[in-house]
Design a protein that fits this description.
6-stranded mixed sheet, 288 residues, 6-stranded parallel sheet, 10 helices, binds NADP nicotinamide-adenine-dinucleotide phosphate
C-alpha cells in the first residue's frame, strides 16, 4: 500500500488486526483503502501476536490508545476474557472479531456471522431448509453456526478437537431450527454425511496457505452441492477446486472478508463503508 498521499501526524487514529499468523491478512489493504476513500485520518496495521502474549498485547493496545482492532486466528475466542464488555451478539456467539476502544473500554463485537450470511444472500444462496455440513469449531465456525442455525434444516459439525466440536454443538442446539450433531474429523461416516449434505461450509483453517486439506474426496461431491470455503488464501482452495470440477456451486472467502470488514469499519467510524474501494484494493492485490 502506498502512503505517499497520506500524512501521519500525532492525531492520526491507529487501528489494526491481531493474529498469529497475520501476514496473510488482507484487512490492512481494505481498511486503509476505506479510510483513504472517506478522507479519515486513520491507519490500519497488522500486529503479530502469539497466544501466550495475548493478555499483554491487549493491555498494550489499550494503553497505547489504539482505536479499534480486528481479531483473527487463533485469538477470536480467547480474547473474550480480556475485554471490558461484549455486545449482545458477540456474547451469544462467544467469539469476537472486532474490538472498539470507547474511552479506554474495550468492547467486543462479532461481524463474521453477518458477513457470511450477507455473502450467501448476495450470491442468491438460501440457508433455509438446507442440510449444512460445517467444518470447524473455532471463532469463525461459532459465528457462522449462530448465523445459520435458526434457518438450517440440519447442521452437522465436523472438527478435529471433539471437545470443542461438542461444545459448539451444545451452543447451537439452543437456537437451532433443526437437529445439530457432531462427528469427528476422521470419522468413517464422513463420506455419507458429505453426500447427504447440500450446503458445505469450511469455517476451519484447513486449506489455508495450501497447508492442510479438508478430507473430502472429489468423487463425493455432485452438482447439487453448494460449497462455501471461508479460507481466502488461496482464493481457490483445493476444496473449491474439486467442488467446481464436480459442477457444484462454489463461493470463496473474499466476499465474506469484504462483508465482515465493512461491518467492522461501520462499527469503528459510524459511517457506511465504501465497499467498492475496499473490493478494488483486495482485487488489485489478488490479481497481483
Ligand atoms: N473470509 C473471511 O472473512 C474469514 C473470516 C474469519 C476467518 N476466516 C478464516 O477461517 C479460518 C478459521 O479461522 P478462526 O478464526 O475460526 O480460527 P480458530 O478459532 O483458530 O479455529 C481454527 C479451526 O480450524 C481447525 N484446525 C486448525 N488446524 C487444523 C488442522 N491441522 N487440522 C484440522 N483442523 C484444524 C481448528 O480445529 P481444532 O478445534 O481441532 O483446533 C478450528 O476448528 C482461518 O483460515 C481464517 O483465515 C476467514
Amino acid at each position: 500500500l502506498e502512503f505517499c498521499d497520506q500524512t501521519i501526524t500525532g492525531k492520526t487514529a491507529v487501528y489494526g488486526v491481531i493474529g498469529d499468523p497475520v501476514d496473510h491478512s488482507m484487512s490492512p489493504l481494505m481498511q486503509n483503502a476505506a479510510f483513504r476513500k472517506l478522507g479519515i485520518d486513520a491507519i490500519y496495521v497488522p500486529f503479530s501476536l502469539r497466544s501466550r502474549m495475548l493478555e499483554a498485547g491487549i493491555i498494550g493496545l489499550k494503553s497505547l490508545g489504539v482505536r479499534g482492532f480486528n481479531v483473527t486466528i487463533p485469538h477470536k475466542m480467547h480474547v473474550v476474557e480480556h475485554l471490558d464488555e461484549l455486545d449482545h451478539k458477540a456474547s451469544e456467539i462467544g467469539s469476537v472479531n472486532t474490538v472498539v476502544n470507547i474511552a479506554g473500554r474495550l468492547v467486543g463485537h462479532n461481524t463474521d456471522g453477518v458477513g457470511a450470511l450477507n455473502t450467501l444472500n448476495q450470491a442468491g444462496i438460501s440457508v433455509s431448509g438446507r442440510k449444512v455440513l460445517l467444518f470447524g469449531a473455532g471463532g469463525a465456525a461459532h459465528a457462522i453456526g449462530h448465523a445459520i442455525a435458526p434457518m438450517a434444516a440440519e447442521i452437522t459439525i465436523v472438527n478435529r478437537n471433539p471437545a470443542r466440536g461438542k461444545r459448539l454443538m451444545a451452543r447451537l442446539a439452543k437456537i437451532a431450527k433443526g437437529k445439530v450433531s457432531f462427528v469427528a474429523l476422521k470419522h468413517t461416516r464422513l463420506e455419507r454425511i458429505v453426500r447427504q449434505a447440500d450446503l458445505i461450509v469450511n469455517a476451519s483453517s484447513m486449506g489455508m496457505a495450501n497447508k492442510l486439506d479438508v478430507p473430502i474426496e472429489a468423487g463425493w461431491l455432485q452438482s447439487k452441492h453448494t460449497v462455501f470455503d471461508i479460507v481466502y488464501e488461496p482464493t481457490e482452495t483445493r476444496l473449491l477446486k474439486i467442488a467446481r470440477g464436480a459442477g457444484a456451486r462454489t463461493v470463496n472467502g473474499l466476499d465474506m472478508l469484504l462483508n465482515q470488514g465493512a461491518c467492522s469499519f461501520e462499527i469503528w467510524t459510524g459511517k457506511p463503508a465504501p465497499i467498492s474501494s475496499m473490493r478494488e484494493a483486495v482485487d488489485r492485490f489478488v490479481e497481483g
